[in-house]
């Protein structure tokens, strides 16, 4: 489903991704962990080309883009992006649109689909994330957890092959974290392919088929949750996990 090979990213002189290789199978949940500044968000943003890599290649679905020579064309960018749905730390809903208007916006504009049909699909997704009764409300009248659940429904509306989550609960008050994690766990059970940057280690233990530990622009260690989180082999992984205790 996803294949990343020798991926590199630098911002001016700062090399953030040195050389990243990993793959994600259909239906797999991959959690990306590591110290702050290790490049996790940059890697996730590269996967849907919010950042353009400086080298290597990314395959998602049946589309492969290589970045060694030139940046991708607009057409290739749109094609690769159509395979993934992104959920950000700070929900990024349109403030002047209701929950329902927010979630149907992309397929309405990008896919030129009919509003009536989209609203039916929207109802189903809003029920799934527990937001149906809030469908006509505006974001500023909702809690952070509710906004994030609406943002998840919005990403799902495009039927992405892969959902990408960038620390989806780090902007939330502690009591709102659970309701968002529960929705993500539900998606995991349904077999949704996901890559999740997270600091929630208990959550990673529950949902991850694979955990990648990143440090200084490399994936230092990867394995099942119990391999990486309970029995890490690398010194840097051990030190990182000890700091969390
Ligand atoms: P993490 O998600 O692991 O905390 P990030 O990917 O956010 O790490 O950041 C890795 C490094 O890249 C940091 O040093 C950060 O300052 C830098 N960085 C991230 N985005 C940019 C940008 N747009 N311009 C310049 N530097 C950036």
UniProtKB/TrEMBL annotation:
Originating organism: Alkalihalobacterium chitinilyticum
The name this protein goes by in its record: Amino acid ABC transporter ATP-binding protein
Entry-linked SUPFAM superfamilies: P-loop containing nucleoside triphosphate hydrolases (SSF52540)
Membrane spanning residue stretches: none
Domain annotation ABC transporter: ranges: 2-241
InterPro entries: AAA+_ATPase (IPR003593), ABC_ATPase_HisP-typ (IPR030679), ABC_transporter-like_ATP-bd (IPR003439), ABC_transporter-like_CS (IPR017871), MetN_ABC_transporter-like (IPR050086), P-loop_NTPase (IPR027417)
UniProt-annotated location(s): Cell membrane
GO function term, MF aspect, one: ATP binding
Membrane topology note: Peripheral membrane protein
PANTHER family for this protein: AMINO ACID IMPORT ATP-BINDING PROTEIN (PTHR43166), L-CYSTINE IMPORT ATP-BINDING PROTEIN TCYN (PTHR43166:SF35)
Main localization of the protein described in the UniProt heading: membrane
């Amino acid at each position: 489903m996803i294949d990343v090979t020798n991926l590199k990213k630098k911002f001016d002189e700062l090399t953030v991704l040195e050389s990243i290789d990993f793959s994600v199978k259909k239906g797999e949940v991959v959690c990306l962990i590591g110290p702050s500044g290790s490049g996790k968000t940059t890697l996730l943003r590269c996967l849907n080309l919010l950042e353009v890599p400086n080298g290597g290649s990314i395959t998602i679905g049946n589309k492969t883009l290589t970045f060694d020579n030139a940046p991708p064309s607009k057409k290739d960018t749109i094609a690769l992006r159509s395979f993934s749905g992104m959920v950000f730390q700070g929900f990024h809903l349109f403030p002047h649109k209701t929950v329902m208007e927010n979630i149907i916006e992309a397929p309405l504009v990008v896919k030129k689909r009919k509003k009536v049909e989209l609203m039916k699909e929207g109802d189903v997704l809003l029920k799934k994330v527990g937001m149906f009764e809030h469908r006509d409300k505006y974001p500023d009248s909702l809690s952070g957890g509710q906004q994030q659940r609406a943002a998840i429904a919005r990403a799902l509306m495009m039927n992405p092959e892969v959902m990408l989550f960038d620390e989806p609960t780090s902007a939330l008050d502690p009591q709102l974290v659970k309701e968002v994690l529960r929705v993500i766990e539900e998606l995991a059970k349904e077999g949704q392919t996901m890559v999740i940057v997270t600091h929630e280690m208990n959550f990673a233990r529950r949902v991850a088929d694979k955990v990648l530990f990143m440090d200084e622009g490399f994936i230092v260690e990867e394995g099942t949750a119990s391999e990486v989180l309970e029995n890490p082999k690398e010194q840097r992984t051990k030190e990182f996990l000890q700091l969390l205790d």
